[in-house]
Amino acid sequence: MRLHLAGTLALGLWLLAPGGASAEVRPFADVESGWAIPGYNDVRIPGDTGTLFSLNSGPITTASAPYFRLRLGVTLAERHTVFVAAAPLRLQARGTLPGDVDFAGSTFPAGSFVTGQYRFDTWRLTYRYTWWRSEDLEATVGATALVRDAGISLQGGGQFAEKLNVGLVPLLSFSVRWRFAGPWSLLLDGDALAGGPGRAEDVLLALRCQLRPDLAVRLGYRLLEGGADTSSVYNFALFHFVGAGLEVGLW
């Protein structure tokens, strides 16, 4: 994980290094923050022998929490955009187990009060190509290499168990921006892919305002959903995000 992260950050710093700024090279930063609201979160670990239970249904619930995202990138020759992004997510669950739960090699008996943590931190490297641009509409398409550093833990009844999962996931990447009135536009932006044992969707729909050429703000709704069904892990989860973003040209 640290090697993946170090390589990604090194590439990002290289891309943003000063070297003759011009209209052909436009580095930018994008920050987003707001509130993460959990939806369903179904877990079975191991995926073929554990107990299926929910981290956010009935006696066990997951609390909403603030979130933060950061993206650094550069647009080259107006059509090629490369960026790195950090998108951590950590949520806390608690409640009383209605039945015995076999989780990650431990058995938590019925009636145990448990606390849990759901962690889904991602680091991303994305390339997008602007294949359509007009006065009112701009669309890009590309690919994202996502490094997932995830973990699910339970603690209670004198026991602690945790399942960690680190992996590299390729995703399709896209954005569509419709300028419908002066500086105002609608933005659809995301990464997504389905197939094999799992799926992943991380999609933002936002109202965006271009305050000046190098500064824009947005307010929107983001949906993060997906999971995998394998012999070692079964987990499918949905999260809603309501947040604001700031996009800044760096020179």
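Above is the first protein from milestone M3; the second protein from the same milestone is given next.
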Amino acid sequence: MYNFKYERAESVDQAVKMIQAGGHLLAGGQTLLASMKHRLARHEALIDLGHVHDLVGIKQEGSNFVIGAMTRHQDVAKHAGIKQHIPGLAHLAGGIGDKQVRAMGTIGGSLANNDPAACYPSAVMALDATIHTNTRKIKADDYFLGMYSTALEPDEVITAVSFPIPNKSAYAKFKQPASRYALVGVFVAQTDQGVRVAITGAGQGVFRHEGLEKALQSSFTAAAVDGIKIDASELSADLHASAAYRASLITTQTQRAVDAALAA
């Protein structure tokens, strides 16, 4: 690991000033620190957000749950309101990494990093969530721009994520056994506005599938997606799975998510 300066922000405004002075934000550090240890990333200064208490917590505001950016995965997984009203989100958070990762990793850090195999982006996309920053609010469909790329400006800080409460939701993930990232993960949400299906791990970033959504809008059953074509030509292929295998997994994980949503 390269040498770096450690700084601790006490507020979002202070963090922004530190970013403008050349610092880089540190949330849970599950990805950033590993990248630095392997010399895949180099930053002169890290700005620890762990003491910005305004960024931590979960609250219900009307028909939405607002989760602070520095809220740990384990706290989302255990939250009674999330488990009752958005069980798919609680299940997703409880399946990220291992116990140590869930104790340190944060929703804001995951979304800012936007790993193409991360779990949270699929929940944000499927639930039509809104990302709050220190300057604006960004809808999920406008936020994710591809592999490790988002709509965030260089000095913009995620402060919270607002999740509308769906009628039904569930997440099904086929894990890459070593990393526990999603080889393919599918989040399904049924709302009054329609069905949204978001897929992670299969491509260059999270994406929705129109064919699956239309089929489930007509009939919210696992059988409804039988015969829906999943085009493998734009899916990822690596030593863990071919594009064709990932296409097959998308169908299977969608069916499992629907079954779980109906059983919840």
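Note on the second protein: Residues 144 and 150 are 5 Å apart (CA to CA).
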